[in-house]
């Protein structure tokens, strides 16, 4: 079962393969636990009751032998792929001002 967190981590971890000046200032994160599944482009780690699926590539630096059951620490970064603003604020370009609940009085002529 894939959760939004797992999918986000998978997308974000792709950035791990692209080290260099583009990601020089990116914050890194870690997940540690036993490997539960392994493919050419993902490593799946169990941290407590959570399953973390992290993307990897041929450029991912690996120290030691990755295999199911081995305890591993995976370091990754997060990077937005897209961002889409939704709702009324997106349609108008700015957020609507908050109302203070007071009625405006009409001036007598």
Features:
28% strand, four-stranded antiparallel β-sheet, 14% helix, OB fold (Dihydrolipoamide Acetyltransferase, E2P), 2 helices, 109 residues, alpha+beta, elongated
* Protein structure class: alpha+beta
**Contiguous helical run count:** 2
Helix fraction bin: 10-25%
Gyration radius (Cα, Å) is 23 Å
Q: Identify the CATH architecture of one domain.
A: Beta Barrel
Q: What is the strand tally?
A: 4
Q: Please state the overall shape, judged from the principal axes of the Cα atoms.
A: elongated
Short précis:
By secondary structure, the chain is of the alpha+beta class. The protein has helices at 4-13, 88-92; strands at residues 28-38, 42-47, 50-55, 71-77.
């Amino acid at each position: 079962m894939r959760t939004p967190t797992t999918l986000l981590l998978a997308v974000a971890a792709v950035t791990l393969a692209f080290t260099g000046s583009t990601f020089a200032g990116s914050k890194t994160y870690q997940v540690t636990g036993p490997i539960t599944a392994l493919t050419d482009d993902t490593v799946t780690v169990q941290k407590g009751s959570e399953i973390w699926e992290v993307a990897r590539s041929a450029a991912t630096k690996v120290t030691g032998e990755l295999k199911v059951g081995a305890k591993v620490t995976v370091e990754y970064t997060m990077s937005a792929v897209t961002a889409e603003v939704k709702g009324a604020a997106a349609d108008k370009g700015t957020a609507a001002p908050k109302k203070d609940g007071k009625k405006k009085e009409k001036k007598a002529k």
